[in-house]
UniProtKB/TrEMBL annotation:
<dbReference type="InterPro" id="IPR002502">
    <property type="entry name" value="Amidase_domain"/>
</dbReference>
<keyword id="KW-0378">Hydrolase</keyword>
<dbReference type="GO" id="GO:0019867">
    <property type="term" value="C:outer membrane"/>
</dbReference>
<dbReference type="Pfam" id="PF01510">
    <property type="entry name" value="Amidase_2"/>
</dbReference>
<dbReference type="InterPro" id="IPR036505">
    <property type="entry name" value="Amidase/PGRP_sf"/>
</dbReference>
<keyword id="KW-0961">Cell wall biogenesis/degradation</keyword>
<dbReference type="GO" id="GO:0008745">
    <property type="term" value="F:N-acetylmuramoyl-L-alanine amidase activity"/>
</dbReference>
<dbReference type="InterPro" id="IPR051206">
    <property type="entry name" value="NAMLAA_amidase_2"/>
</dbReference>
<protein>
    <recommendedName>
        <fullName>N-acetylmuramoyl-L-alanine amidase</fullName>
        <ecNumber>3.5.1.28</ecNumber>
    </recommendedName>
</protein>
<dbReference type="GO" id="GO:0009253">
    <property type="term" value="P:peptidoglycan catabolic process"/>
</dbReference>
<dbReference type="GO" id="GO:0009254">
    <property type="term" value="P:peptidoglycan turnover"/>
</dbReference>
<dbReference type="GO" id="GO:0071555">
    <property type="term" value="P:cell wall organization"/>
</dbReference>
<feature type="domain" description="N-acetylmuramoyl-L-alanine amidase">
    <location>
        <begin position="10"/>
        <end position="147"/>
    </location>
</feature>
<feature type="region of interest" description="Disordered">
    <location>
        <begin position="1"/>
        <end position="20"/>
    </location>
</feature>
Length: 242
């Protein structure tokens, strides 16, 4: 079934650099109260930001930048050795106020529209689930979207992203061993290796946002280590011997 998509062209785009085709999708939230304000900003030349698509709370889809072009959505970012994520990705903005106090979960019509659009994009460009990521994944510490209320598990059940329900049961609560396991698995997935303690803290928060939002702010432990290892294995197969 073809998607009904409204076209609202943005001037904010350019040629993809060094990438023949996009092989990633990056999910965002607008962090604005009104859809109209988000659409205006993403089409304002002075703002110098854009995305390929915006999905409204009622499920309407707006196309702003052609998929063949480089939209300006990821900013300073990194994934799997690539520092120009914009050139490798399709950017999708979800109309949502963000992880503010009292903010609701993402909206049912919006999630359904995202699933349909994402499945279409992934099939068209050959994008694999391990390369469907959030803005917080490619810019830990700098960005937190789509945030702790986004349902990654739902996407994973439809083959559109990665997820793990591992609970860490039976795993030793050894802080250093779990830290090392988390960092190894994160590097295998594509996260930027942290250069210092501040970057490591930002990375751990990004991993909790994505894979253990209910534990956000708690010390990373067996559950996060188990989930990261399982997800890394989904993406790349068993880890090599330590």
């Amino acid at each position: 079934m073809s998607l009904a998509i409204a076209h609202l062209p943005s001037p904010n785009h350019g040629p993809r650099r060094g990438a023949a085709a996009p092989d990633m999708a990056v999910l965002h939230h607008t962090a604005m109260e009104r859809l109209e304000d988000a659409l205006a900003r993403l089409r304002d030349p002075a703002a110098e930001v854009s995305a390929h698509y915006v999905i409204a709370r009622d499920g309407r889809i707006f196309a702003l930048v052609p998929e063949e072009r480089r939209a300006w959505h990821a900013g300073v970012s990194f994934w799997a050795g690539e520092r120009d994520v914009n050139s490798r990705s399709i950017g999708i903005e979800l109309d949502h106020p963000g992880p503010l106090a009292g903010a609701p979960p993402y909206f049912a019509p919006q999630m359904l529209a995202l699933e349909r659009l994402l499945a279409d994009i992934m099939a068209r460009w050959g994008i694999v689930p391990s390369r469907v990521v959030g803005h917080s994944d490619v810019a830990p510490g700098r960005k937190s979207d789509p945030g702790p209320k986004f349902d990654w598990r739902r996407l994973a059940l439809r083959g559109l992203a990665l997820w793990s329900d591992a609970d860490g049961a039976g795993r030793r609560d050894d802080p250093e061993a779990n830290r090392a396991a988390i960092l190894r698995a994160a590097a295998r997935l594509g996260y930027a290796p942290p250069a210092d303690a501040a970057q490591e803290a930002a990375l751990m928060r990004a991993l909790q946002l994505r894979f253990a939002p209910h534990a956000l702010g708690a010390p990373p432990g067996p559950l996060l280590a188990a989930r990261l290892e399982e997800v890394a294995e989904q993406a790349q197969g068993p880890a090599p011997p330590a």
